[in-house]
């Protein structure tokens, strides 16, 4: 039965159409997306109280969970229940285990059922599992490395043949490396992950991975084969050709635990019984690429029947380092989209270049056939010069080149193993015979995060901007959030990460990704509380403490809390957040943070001929003071959530002093700021630095400034993320839209008009005359300015988290159409399920369709309406005059 109800608001007619079909007899609920610590059936859970989540699917409207039951045991049928709980509440996200202490390396099975507010009871969910990680004393494996000094640039291979006496019931492989590893059993890769064990603050902790390898093993002879690359551990990383930052020796640690069908057990570990040799990878490193000589391939080396010749040497066992081994918590890096070559052409300089149509991060899989010894070189570039030539100067010293040397006349497919490239174009040298489109495929490689957001509008340029934002994210979420993926940098720049984190959480599920990285933020935070420019920190110890960069320590935990409702992140990061705020207090004088080095509003608008003071320079200490306030506010927010009332009182008092000091130092009595820039007003308003009565005039000064620049933004990394938010908040939606839809430089759409397929580092990476910005800092894949995505989801589509009920338990749906947009539509997969908001404007009527997942609720505010509608789960239709 369709129920249509209409509601009238005082000013506008709001038609609320309940299109939702309710069939009373078929009100059933079921559960989906069951996870432990954000992961489906994970293998290396270190948290002693792992947290369970599920989503409820219901055909009825207004569905809420009334209670839940969880049961857990150690057998797949859970016949013996080790822990059960039945709780009357509507919590369905991140519920902590609360039973007897869990044992290490043990598989636990669990299931859940729920009852809703309509009296429906779900079936018990299918049984899920999680496996606990290893305790330090569970490791009997030894770190192994090549004998003597590890000086060869080539990738060492490690090999172990072993015999399994009986039928295998289960087998788990625990593996990690200093460097990067690619592991195989009986010739097959143990997983589809790349760049394992991932990049962490290795001096503090190294992740290990766990693989279920039962299917690869058999009774009788078996072989493990592992090759190692330099990776971030030993290879070139950071500036000035820095190498061996974490250590000079690549090493492997592996433990294979087998259980036979009769219950007896066997463990195979790395130790001095293993053999090592060298194979075809002659060099590999993150920035420069890989050289692979197929003539050195050792056919069958990682399989049985291979005869080790005298080139295979014994390994040496290494003493365990001080670093902790921790189970992997984030997503692995895997292959994703493939791109066919679109065009092969000769440039004016006569080079053979291939266009894949998308700036991406990963590599090219190249098919080739030719005489032994033929060397093919693939070079990578993001852009062509205005003359149409292949351009690599902006890569600085990164070679980004893969070399393949053919072994014989057979056809082979090549790809790198321990390196990735950022590119849209490749240049091919030395290819034997005719290079055809089908010989090349580009594959995007990034952390395996689920796409959670979709966003589109009636404006194709905006849709391309959204595309570019999401490709900026893919390319720079390769295990750590990096500034760029192509030049000799690729570092976890904290300023960029804090600017982009909330946008990232719309586009993809970044919960596990940032949870992992925040451990590094804590680990690399300096003893005095300061936070390094990059995490993991590979720069100097005192390269730390820049406003808007170091504030990542408070901003990202809070963003993750709001996006995923994860109180645990706040608990874990609280000390780090507090240490950071206390650090600022320790260097502040009279409550003013006016010391130290700051990057400031990085890459703000700076015209060449600046005779009229058009450059939008914002005083750096003024900026620092606003971030001091912001970080303090976020610490207070976290303290409130965690019930730390003393801290709430203490830091509230501090916050007041910070704001008073700001005003005294930076504002005239009439409300003008010492830097008359967009960023100055944006930060002052976003972080509530000004007294209430002076905010509207400050917002007007911001508007005047934007108008004065002909509706152009002039903000850099720090002002840009908040620019449109502040304009919207103070009622200047039209100005926000003017900026967003601006097509000439500087603007978000200027690069789009210039053909960008990712977000650029600079507003004018390619200038209007087609020439490039300075080559020493001109990345074409830098996500920071993509932070506008947050505003697009929140304001255009209108999907907003509500921090009082985080994780979209309650959602504010408040779309604000503007200028000539006639429709917009977005979806977000939240921890409760899918939220949808989609609107059109036709014939002066604004029509909105909203979907709210079960166990969540929403507040809907129609454009220009003064009334709010509270709705429960289900799908709804609204209309109003517009
Ligand atoms: C990086 C940035 C970073 C900046 C610090 C650059 O080299 O690419 O994105 O935030 O340095 O200002």
From TrEMBL:
Biological process (GO), any one: carbohydrate metabolic process
Domain Alpha-L-rhamnosidase concanavalin-like: 346-446
Span of domain Alpha-L-rhamnosidase six-hairpin glycosidase: 451-796
Presence of the UniProt keyword Repeat in the record: no
A Pfam short name: Bac_rhamnosid_C
Transmembrane segments: none
Keywords: Hydrolase, Signal
Reactions that this protein is recorded to catalyse: Hydrolysis of terminal non-reducing alpha-L-rhamnose residues in alpha-L-rhamnosides
Signal sequence interval, chain numbering: 1-26
Domain Bacterial alpha-L-rhamnosidase N-terminal: from-to ranges: 166-337
EC number: 3.2.1.40
Residue ranges occupied by any Alpha-L-rhamnosidase C-terminal domain in the UniProt entry: 798-872
Gene3D superfamilies named in the record: 1.50.10.10, Galactose-binding domain-like, Immunoglobulins, Maltose phosphorylase, domain 3
Key word Signal present: yes
Enzyme class: hydrolase
Alphabetical list of InterPro entries matching this protein: 6-hairpin_glycosidase_sf, 6hp_glycosidase-like_sf, Alpha_rhamnosid, Bac_rhamnosid6H, Bac_rhamnosid_C, Bac_rhamnosid_N, FN3_sf, Ig-like_fold
One function term, GO molecular function aspect: alpha-L-rhamnosidase activity
Name assigned to this protein: alpha-L-rhamnosidase
Taxonomic lineage of the native organism: Bacteria, Pseudomonadati, Bacteroidota, Sphingobacteriia, Sphingobacteriales
